[in-house]
Amino acid sequence: MNINDFLLTTGVSLTIGLLVGYFIRDLIESGKRFYQRNLKRSRYFEQDMTTKK
Q1: φ and ψ at residue 34, rounded to 5 degrees
Q2: Residue 23 has what pLDDT?
Q3: Can you tell me whether residue 50 is helix, strand or coil?
Q4: pLDDT-above-70 percentage for the chain
Q5: pTM > 0.85: yes or no
Q6: What is the DSSP letter of 1?
Q7: Cα 21 to Cα 19: distance, rounded to the nearest angstrom
Q8: Torsion angle of the four alpha carbons 11, 14, 16, 18, in this order, in degrees rounded to the nearest 10
Q9: 13, 19, 22, 28 alpha-carbon torsion, rounded to 10°
């Protein structure tokens, strides 16, 4: 392997790594927002429900 092959391999790996990392970050943030909006119950909601009974 000469220096040109090494630089090409390094450049391609770095580019792919940055793209994959960017999309994984967005996917995790989307998952967090979905959890906060749809799955997590608020403490205040549960307190309101206990006072209305």
Answers
A1: -60, -45
A2: 94
A3: helix
A4: 75
A5: no
A6: -
A7: 5
A8: -140
A9: -90
**Taking residues 3-18, what's their average pLDDT?**
96
Q: How far is CA 34 from CA 23, 28, 52, in A?
A: 16, 10, 28
Distances (CA, A) of 53 to 41, 45, 46, 47, 49: 18, 13, 11, 11, 7
Q: Is the pLDDT of residue 42 over 80?
A: no
**At residue 11, what is the residue type?**
G
Predicted confidence band at 45 (pLDDT cuts at 50, 70, 90)?
low
Handedness of CA 34, 39, 43, 48 (dihedral sign): positive
Which tokens belong to 12? 């391609």
